Amino acid sequence: MSRTKKREGSQNPAGNKFFSLSGTTGKFGYYDKEREGTIPLEYPIKLIVLDVLSTIKGYHSGKGAGIFSNEIHNQSIEVLKVRVFNNGELATGLYADIKDKVKGVGGKFANSVYAMMIIDSEPTLVNFQFYGASLSPFIDFQKENDIYKNSVNITGSTPAKKGATNYFIPIFESGGITEEESKVADLMDIELQKYVDDYKLGQIDKVEKDDWTPDASTKPEEE
Predict the structure, then answer these.
(1) Looking at the 3D structure of the chain, how many domains does it have?
(2) Domain at 199, CATH number
(3) Tens of pLDDT along 94-109?
(4) Residue 209 is assigned to a structural domain of this protein
(5) Residue-wise burial string across 119-151, b where 16 or more C-beta atoms lie within 10 A, e elsewhere
(6) pTM
């Protein structure tokens, strides 16, 4: 903390808008603590991506609790600190070194995507967590599209089945960005990067109570 820059207690700029895909409904939604339930989004969804980080998400069946970690840009050189909600540390290290242990108890590699989305006519900073059935489609989409020059549009989801497990796969399409949207997104990203820089320097600690909410989509039957 300094005279003009108060870091202690800083909150993630996405607020409570952390969206993930529900395997039951095929829709993205976020967990609302006050309502004690998941609030779904209707398709289509238009995102103007600000930054993409990597993290770990999942559900530890043995502990009956969610799995989460810090967020990083480069999994080859940045350390992941994986925890189980209310149960302490699970594993710490480079992803290649800890992935078997993490996967063995239900942890999944995820892309944490910070983006600008228009909510109630207002540009809003949100976060989309792509893991499980939604991760591969997003990675494939990134390979064929410039997600920073164009918008990422999620137009819907398609049902799929593997063995006895039913799930949904999101449908991604590339779209345009207006000059005004681009300007607002640039300003929003400047604020986001200030948070990311402080966070990576260890000035902001992502404590467990802020990092995981009992979103049903993290549980095995919802993936």
Answers:
(1) 1
(2) 2.40.50
(3) 999 999 999 999 999 9
(4) yes
(5) eeeeeebbbbbbbbbbbebbeebbeebebeeeb
(6) 0.85
